Amino acid sequence: MKIKRLQILFISILLLGYPLLVGFSSYFIYVAGLFIIYAIMAMSLNLLTGFGGQISIGHAAFLAIGAYTTAILTLKLGLPFWLNLPLSGVITAIVGFLIGLPAVRLSGHFLAIATLAFGLAIPEIMLKWEGLTGGFAGLFIEKPSLFSSDTSFYYFTTVIALIITWLILNLLKGNFGRAFVAIRESEIAAEAMGVNVSLYKTLMFSISAFFTGIAGSLYAYFVGFISPHDFNMNISLIVLAMIVLGGLASITGSILGAFILTIIPQVADRFPGFTITITGAALILTILFLPNGLISLFNYKWKRKKTENKQLSLEG
Amino acid sequence: MLLELKKVTVSFGGLTAVNNLDLQVDEGMIFAIIGPNGAGKTTILNCISRFYTPCSGQISFKGENLLTKKTHKVLASGISRSFQNVELFSKMTVLDNLLVGLHPSLKSSLLSNAFKTKKNKQEEEAAKEIAFEILELFDLKHHANEEVRNLPFGIQKMIDIGRAIISKPKLLLLDEPVAGMNIEETKKNAELITRLRDEFGITILMIEHDMSLVMNISDRIAVMDFGKKIAEGTVTEVQNNPKVIEAYLGEVQEDVGT
Amino acid sequence: ACGGTNSSTTSTKNAKEKSSVKNSQGVTDDEILIGGWVPQSGPAAQWGILAEVYQSYFNKVNADGGVNGRKLKYIAIDDEYQPSKTVAAAKKLVEQEKVFAILGTTGTAHNKAVKPYLTQKGIPVVAVASGDSAFVKPAVKNYFALQTNYDIEARIFSTYANKELKAKSVGIFYQNDDYGIVYRDAAVEELNKLGIKVAAQESYNPTDVDFSAQALSMKKASPDVVFLFASPKPAASFLKEFDKIGGSAERMLTYTSADSTMIDLAGADVMEGVLSTTWVKSLKDKDNPLIKEYVDQISKDIPKQDPNSVFMRSAWAYAQVLVEGLKRSGDNLTWENFIKQMETLKDWDGSLAYNVTYTSDYRYGQTSVKISQFKGGELVDISDVIKYEP
Amino acid sequence: MAGQIIIGGLAAGSLYALAALGLILIFKTSDIVNFAQGEMAMLITFISFTFLTVTKLPYFVSFLLSLVIAFIFGMAVERIFMRPVQKAPILNQIILTFGLYMVFRGVAGIIWGYTPVGFPEALPNKHFNYVGITITINQIFIFVVTTILMLGFYLFFKHTKIGLAMRASSQNIATAKLMGIGVSSVFTRTWGISAILGGIAGILIAPVTFLDPNMMGEVGIKAFAAAILGGFTSLPGAIVGGLLIGVFEGLIAGYVSSELKSVFVFALIILVLYVKPTGILGEKITKKV
Amino acid sequence: MLELKQISAFYGNIQALDRISIQIPEGSIVTLLGANGAGKSSTLKVISQLLPIKSGTMVYKNEDISNLEPNEIVKRRIIHCPENRQVFPKLTVEENLIIGSYLRRDKDQIKKDLSDIFSYFPILKERLKQYASTLSGGEQQMLAIGRALMGNPKVLLLDEPSLGLAPIIVNQIFEIIQEINRKGTSILLVEQNANLALRIADYGYILENGRIGLEGRAEFLRNNDEISKYYLGGKSHAANLY
Ligand SMILES: Nc1ncnc2c1ncn2[C@@H]1O[C@H](COP(=O)(O)OP(=O)(O)OP(=O)(O)O)[C@@H](O)[C@H]1O
Ligand SMILES: Nc1ncnc2c1ncn2[C@@H]1O[C@H](COP(=O)(O)OP(=O)(O)OP(=O)(O)O)[C@@H](O)[C@H]1O
Ligand SMILES: [Mg+2]
Ligand SMILES: [Mg+2]
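ok -> structure tokens follow
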């Protein structure tokens, strides 16, 4: 627990001091902002997949719904951003709940395909629903006047991310988090202990969708332009890769994973043609050498677990 | 009468695992079900804890119809269970395993959990205290923060039982609580089970193949074979029932222990 | 084959103070830095070839001594066809790499995503590799389009179908995205104006592989002419399928697919007689030194690819227009002056582009095409230049 | 029109089913969804293409030669990448295959570029017309190949000890070892065989989708969907799933909306899974407590 | 003929076995006793090579088998029936049994062994086409034992075979063990029910915290006070067995 707090504290100080470090360069701030937004998304996905054991390979769709909600509310209804942000979360959460309903009956790869289906369908629906979403032409969103510069919006994003981190950590430590993990470990035992497994699974989907929706809203403001290109299957898989790379069921791990996979393409983009090769190779090497994710580098306790884990999986 | 099964029948495809079974368990009893492998004992337990729904028959608990209850509502109504082949949350700590057992009694809302309100903190503290009481009772305090998968099987079985009783149920269902334990540990568990009944007032319905446990602590025993009850009574009645000897106990070996 | 390693744009070594004006970013005494993004991975990686051609063209220019003594240096960034990465790429090019101008960038949505930012910065953006009207209508000070506008091409299609093919009805097969929809809308509008019936509108998603349903519906509608507003793969698949089930109509392809790739994909039989437009010159005129220069340089730098590719010819044209602007700017390499000099292009002919014109409120570049046709496994021009004034 | 749409759908569906076979094979033996399956198929198709065009070998020779390479390639992938993480959590292994997917695609792009090229069909391009419905020899050929492969592997899993051993290995590696099963070599060979299946799929699909590094993108997703719809462990399920998706997709494109056909397909899948959570031919195996 | 010399083994950095030496002479029944977590199962895992040997050697019929793969061990017909059943849940009863004979080629003998197993455990014959995961606990245990027997063992390593079995079956299991032992199979038996184990065993080892605490002939161990107090529940225990 203490180590985790220190890690988070360290990360927050770094994030807040960052604009100074890079001399307020709008490029560096932009990339950092993307990282923070993906970190929120990765944490939410980790809540669902790493902690709750419910795999989702369509999470970009939630990001899309959050982003489009914000854009549409801003452009069509002219709502202010302090309303848009939470509303985007809520609306995405409602969709998450609806997705959670059929998902409750599915597990493992069957759940994966259901979420994949969702992930593929949403961008196509957004395309088709041109009147509302602008189709492929996309939508422009202006940053809220209160945080109109890149730097101020970056700070706003950081603060929101820290709050979300705090909320997720609290959730995980309490009764709800325990129930989520219990479901992952044994649905049968969880049910016997009075956990309403179906309800909690939908709840997990909703919570995860809620935070991802917020991330989507921040994304819309931060990038300033959204179109269905931004929410394809690859994004979903990359975010899944983030949590595996960082370490399943680890919040710090999600942040690390988001960091690595946001930065790598930025570094690799100077070797045109090699971006995906480099990203893929980084993914492969990390999993080969750190099968339990980057977090295992930082956490002594994990090192022991790793070897035990090995033995355990021997026993099936 | 605490628990009553009337004409319960369970079948899987063509196979009738439990056949027209009647069973009554009075409050404060240690009630054992024994019988050959595949006789349908675990199936009965699964019906009571609502993992299965019988094809026909009734099950009532404290006069209430259990069959209308969903699985996750069973614990709140006062029935808790352990599992034949321990079914723990293996990557959670011992403490967290126990705390999940308190799930239905923790009332904080999602929001107060997320924002860690004072009420939520207090509730968590109280829950931990209860968990530590249980750990104390089982002498497992030093394992509190270990992940259960790293613990020996015997200890896991204890945690399984601990998780089942932390919510102070009226009725505890135990499926082979001492399987895989040696004689010493079996004795310890026998004491524990008796204490649960005596000190906590928990009625116990257990399945066990270890006769040293069953015959020592049971108040009443039902014997099942092929899904049917073939005998019921006190220890001595059952022990001397030729049908039971033939189907289950076998001839007592004369030279045992000499 | 492309992309410099690092650029020290602030290099001030023996500044000769050639002129009194202070040059804009990305210019030193011996170097001009140009940048752009192209997807080199992801669904649109096919466009990645553009960056290699730009580099190839710059190689040639540099070998000939550069532009007024300055060598050209090109930085390509892979944006993986994701608008959010395009934004990062644009910021990186403008603020970190400090390039002088942005050249030949891909993706309609992607270019749109960064247009406000680039407009605000005022950096010259030359030859956006998209024919969308958003970059020319209205004219934006720092944007110079080049290739024939999609909207215009669709109208040329319609007029041609009307006049030359005497079409009574037209069927449209289009890609369901920003590319295909622009065409469709313009074509439908123009056809209606001309009183031609739109018999069918069949769309597909860019990743689709099975087009049998669309081919069938098209055949059922039996139009006189079918317009294909599609990229090469789907266009080829559709044409094959349409041919297989016995569909017959005149077929017209956009310039994006107008090269020998189509023959390779769909087969010469299927392509026989298919019409197309081209906005860049064909390579037929082998003796033309400019064409020869192109073929030689490309064959040297990108030996694996067929120089005939319409993508590659286009890219050469993009780069050439930029360099023309740079040449005309002389030693006064400010954004202001570059833009002014670009506006002096009047019906300018490059090696492959022709009739390129810019004024302060006209940024279309080229609005003319030739009609060409697949004949005996080759694409041959069958009309003179058709110009359309927007 | 409906008749032709159904034929078209069946043709597309057999491509999906064909691409799904290798996926299922690996899943059946190791519980891993191999995201790189399609990309492996693509690489092998490129290799076959190189034999065809550079060394100018006849079609079936280059076909067979590339399958030999496929077998070695598949085994190498297992040895080099999958073996070391055999004991890591399944999700990590799956993400590793996603990494492989990126690298394979990227490398293919670097070597062969992204410009699509045509690929020859297996048989001469003839087609039949019958009551206004057109079907090509190659479509029939693909359907037949898929069915034969499916049946072959179905019988193999059902009735041979090695097939049984492969299923056992997926359920409990340690205990499988106690049976004397050389689990490692079972896995290695499985990857080899599924690379062969991938190669066959790639080479037969390439004439339809054309050859480029992205050729298996859409087909791969539909193959995954087909496999899941069929039950994922069931080989006949893959064919049922593939054909169903192909036909349904065709009908939607023909009568409802061609842009939303995938949306409808996925809605169908979710619906089917809602009714039968283990897919059409998947068996529900309950865990007993 | 199977001999473990000074074997140590680890789970990660947790030591499970500390220089243990065990001998299983041809045709004998040797039992391994010890408290929970003493290292009994680990010893069996070391023999079947599920747990790698860190130091020490293992010799079978004069051959050093310390560094073989598990399937090589099985090839030598050293068969391990693991703790907690470990049946293949998604294989049928029949398939579970057949997979037990994976390396064997003697078709006729396999058939015969199969019918032997059905005669030991008739219930398995009735459940032939049922998935192993749906069997009752005891049925699974029978299946696991049957599956091990299908390997036609020369050396059989049994880890708590009586777990979850009805008393009548437990007796039967012990008879079966003795019967196959008479037919020439050596047996290493891990049991919680030390009484029974020592009754049929020739020799016994007591493990304590990964080390051999005590060893000796079975009668000797049975009559040892310490042992009988701790593992046999005292002399008087048999009286109140049932
Ligand atoms: N889901 C199922 N499908 C098919 N048969 C089942 C299923 N569950 C249980 N059975 C069968 O029902 C019978 C009763 O099983 P049950 O687990 O109740 O036995 P048990 O009395 O607990 O035996 P044991 O003492 O061996 O644990 C067994 O023969 C078992 O094979
Ligand atoms: N997979 C594992 N990972 C880490 N430690 C393990 C593992 N398996 C066993 N251990 C540890 O190794 C030691 C020996 O365990 P082992 O299973 O051999 O004991 P045992 O004598 O068979 O006990 P039991 O009677 O409970 O079966 C114990 O301390 C145990 O906690
Ligand atoms: Mg049972
Ligand atoms: Mg053990």
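The pocket of magnesium ion (ligand 4) is lined by residues E 40-41, 83, 159 (CB under 6 Å).
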